Amino acid sequence: MKLISFEVAGQPSYGVVEGGGIIDLGRELGTRWPSLRHVLAAEGLAELGRAAQGRSADHSLGDVTFLPPIPNPAKIICVGMNYEPHRIEMGRDKDTYPTLFSRFTDCLVAHGQPIVRPRVSEKLDYEGEVALVIGRGGRYIAEAHAFDHIAGYACFLDGSLRDYQAHTGQVIAGKNFPRTGGFGPWMVTADEAGDPAALELTTRLNGEVMQKGRIDQLIYPIPELIAYISQWTELAPGDVISTGTPSGVGLARTPPVFMRAGDTIEVEISRIGTLRHSIIDE
């Protein structure tokens, strides 16, 4: 299933994408499960599938305002330097363990909403990534069981303020300006996405391909990430882990390429979809 969170007539809801439309399930199940995060916590994906079976769309995609697939995750954990060519282009040493940082919910916007370049920065960079959504939480999750804890996958734009990242050895400031990242357009459930190792990611700026990568190229594969992260924090349904970006980022180019007002950035993942944003100035 393609699961979407959205607003229609000012009211938040969620549902299943079918063709060019949405089967609105939040309208009937919202008092029981107010959001997709609540659906995941109740292990309700199978019931959503049954509720959508045989129904026609209630809304067209063009008639709703997209929300991030999980609008209210408790945790957003991102992985840095997880493709070897990207580590090399950034001049970073090899690490023994994954490089991790967090993003806040207010720094992410949904598909179709503009990314905002802050007025204090001239170096807003793109990083296309594959994000996974936790379906079943846990602590000390074994690598062998990691995929059992994944509800689905989505596109992720890890917008990065390179000048603020360089202020100190910690990147968190450069990753958390409001409305500088993207998440969406929907979440594709793990059964429909298939083998995540085969997922192919492409990032395009104004139609030009800037990044290409496959999940099977990760330095730290998904099971290893889930096992390591769950050692130090208990993962919960609806938590988001973004798995890292391939090479080709703007900072590493000669000359550097940064996003400007009027640009369009797209992150496309095979079997998942395309996340698209315009860029505006604050």
Model description:
The chain is an alpha+beta fold and 282 residues long. The protein has 2 domains: 2-67, no CATH class; 76-281, Fumarylacetoacetate hydrolase, domain 2 (Alpha-Beta Complex). It contains 8 helices and 19 strands. Strands 1, 2, 3, 4, 5, 6, 7, 8, 11, 12, 14 and 17 form a 12-stranded mixed beta sheet that branches. Strands 9-19-18-15-16 form a 5-stranded mixed beta sheet, with no helix packed on it.
Can you describe this structure in just a few lines?
The chain is built from 8 helices and 19 strands. The protein is globular. It is of the alpha+beta class.
Which descriptors would you attach to this protein?
17% helix, twelve-stranded mixed beta sheet, Fumarylacetoacetate hydrolase, domain 2, 34% strand, 282 residues, five-stranded mixed beta sheet, single chain
